[in-house]
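Long-time lurker, first post. I've been practising inverse folding by hand and with some scripts of my own, and I keep getting stuck on stretches where the structure tokens seem ambiguous. Below is the full token string for one chain I'm working on. Before anyone asks, I'm not after the true native sequence, just a reasonable design that respects the backbone. If someone could post their per-position residues I'd love to compare against what I wrote down in my notebook.
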């Protein structure tokens, strides 16, 4: 994407958001103090954040199984599936429309489990790392805090995801492999043991950890910048509907970057689960640099939409269950006083 195209996208986004905020009465929900608000950083808070992760990841990943199926097939057999539209055409011709739903069960279960750990642990690690750094350093190095918290959460989330991901990829890409979770799971267990479910864990970490770091850090920073430069009023004065609109916009922007940074590892994961006895390095060498970027366009569309919807659902769950949603970060008073004493401009 060219620099001009990026600037045009930002201008259009700014115009869209301002237009929506000028019509905020269409979806106004008061942002007054909620008497039912759950205590921040309590066990109930973290449990409901985990529930939000289950719903946001489980629902969205399952909804785009047809696109994910075509994307995986393009990655493992680009000679047969020549692009998105051709991939759909060939898949429907061979398996019928119902065949596009292959892998929905392991997708739903696997990504629901992943979402619970991803979002629930992110909130925990973010609070714990904040305590370790202290208020001033947590503000000054907040981007690094987001990156560390999201990477830590995703490390554990992928351990929960790996078995279902292994079954899903084989269902979608291996001819002759069972087409259901009930038959595919025991087949892998019988033939390869537990290690068969985790042979793709390392490349899964390589794909998902950079993806999640970008997903959370880019989202947090984009929200901060949108409220600072685009939204015409402070977040405290925005309705819940307006805040969710900002969430969706920031989520989509983050999703585009997520897709790009994690795509090569995603291609390796798809190919690795199809190729028995191969290592991630073997697959990467065989694919080559250009081969690891096959299927990028559908993945940008898929992940951009996916990430935006995930953040929207997650934030909507927080609103529905009266979970506190902290405002954009602001320098603590102690830091402001230090800056004032040094004659620095308050950030």
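-- Answer (accepted) --
I ran through it position by position. Result:
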């Amino acid at each position: 994407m060219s620099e001009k195209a990026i600037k045009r996208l930002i201008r259009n986004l700014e115009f869209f958001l301002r237009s929506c905020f000028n019509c905020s009465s269409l979806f106004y929900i008061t942002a007054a103090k909620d008497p039912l608000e759950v205590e921040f950083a309590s066990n109930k808070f973290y449990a409901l954040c985990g529930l939000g992760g289950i719903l946001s990841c489980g629902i969205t990943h399952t909804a785009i199984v047809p696109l994910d199926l075509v994307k995986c097939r393009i990655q493992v057999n680009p000679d047969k599936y020549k692009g998105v539209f051709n991939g759909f055409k060939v898949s429907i011709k061979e398996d019928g429309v119902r065949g596009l739903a292959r892998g929905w069960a392991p997708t739903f279960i696997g990504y629901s489990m992943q979402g619970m750990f991803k979002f629930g642990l992110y909130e925990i690690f973010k609070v714990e790392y904040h305590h370790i750094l202290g208020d001033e350093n947590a503000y000054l190095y907040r981007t690094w805090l987001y990156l560390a918290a999201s990477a830590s959460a995703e490390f554990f989330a992928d351990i929960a995801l790996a078995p279902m991901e292994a079954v899903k990829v084989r269902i979608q890409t291996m001819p002759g492999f069972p087409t259901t979770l009930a038959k595919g799971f025991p087949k892998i267990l019988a033939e390869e043991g537990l290690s068969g479910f985790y042979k793709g864990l390392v490349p899964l970490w390589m794909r998902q950890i950079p993806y999640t770091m970008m997903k959370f850090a880019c989202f947090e920073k984009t929200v901060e910048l949108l409220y600072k430069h685009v939204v015409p009023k402070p977040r405290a004065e925005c309705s819940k509907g307006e805040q969710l609109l900002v969430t969706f916009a920031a989520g989509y922007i983050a999703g585009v970057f997520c897709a790009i940074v994690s795509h090569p590892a995603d291609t390796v994961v798809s190919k690795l689960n199809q190729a028995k006895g191969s290592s991630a390095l073997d697959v990467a060498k065989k694919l080559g640099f250009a081969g690891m970027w096959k299927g990028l366009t559908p993945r940008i569309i898929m992940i951009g939409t996916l990430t935006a919807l995930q953040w929207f659902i997650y934030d909507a769950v927080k609103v529905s269950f009266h979970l506190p949603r902290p405002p954009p970060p602001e320098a603590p008073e102690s830091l402001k006083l230090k800056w004032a004493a040094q004659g620095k401009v308050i950030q």
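A couple of notes from the structure itself: The chain has a mean pLDDT of 87. The two ends are 31 Å apart (CA to CA). Happy to go over any region you disagree with.
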